[in-house]
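Section 3.1: Structural characterization of target chains.
Under the original work plan, the team committed to producing a structural model for every single-chain target entering the pipeline before any wet-lab resources were allocated. The record below documents one such target. The sequence was received from the expression subgroup and is listed exactly as submitted; it comprises 272 residues.
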Amino acid sequence: MRIVWAVVCLLALSAQSARALNFFELEVYPATTEGKGLHELSSLSTFVANGRTPSEEEREGEEPIRHRLFRTSLEYNYGLTDKVDIAAYIDLQHENSQEFEYAGSRFRMRGSFWEKGRFPIDLGWYVEAELPHNTESDLEFDVRPILSRDFGKLSIDLNPGFELPTVSEERRTLEFNYSARAYYRLSPVIAPAIELYGGIGQIRDVDASREQEHYVFPVVYGKLFDGLKLAVGPGFGLSRGSDKVILKAQIEWEFTVGGGGVSPAPNSPTPY
């Protein structure tokens, strides 16, 4: 845990550039992990069905046009211990009428501080190194405390995030973003949810409200069979700087080596 807090302190003292919201990471995490020895293959994809008005960077070709932009992230996750998961990602994007292109790689560690339910609020941590492609930053870090709480069949997860690069062409301060969700265990195989995502820009120089991005996603989580899970839903922009409509789909397959598909570990927070 000392290593995690040391990384947090180093990030807080840095003054570089970062992205306020990573659209390859439209996912909310619980404070607990999946379980030791559990493998997971996952694909998270989004499609901008109705994009925002192009920014100056988009019009000049420095960034992809949002409208009709398809993004997908391929993930491999492994339960290193009962309280620590490690993961690697490959991010791809596809502009309207263009070919798929490599958008970057990410490496992540996520863990919990104690057993689920030991205290009124479950607390976890998240540290990710990002290697974006063809951007002003070559290396970025994303650090999040994770808070979770169950209220019977209703569960709430909060993921405030702090992001900045350590290798960049421009200097900017720490940026704040957030993700959160509330989901209800309607049955053993289905759980409706509401997810929130957004960012305010640099903490020392908050973006104007018209430039900030905030989204709400009504999502349905489902379990197709043991080990295979699905989450789908539309997202709606809540601010002028947001895309108007984003469609999201995520599929996950959990398994153990030599054991085929398995149900979530006993301490897994996912009800589907």
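Confidence is low (pLDDT under 50) at residues 1-18, 260-269.
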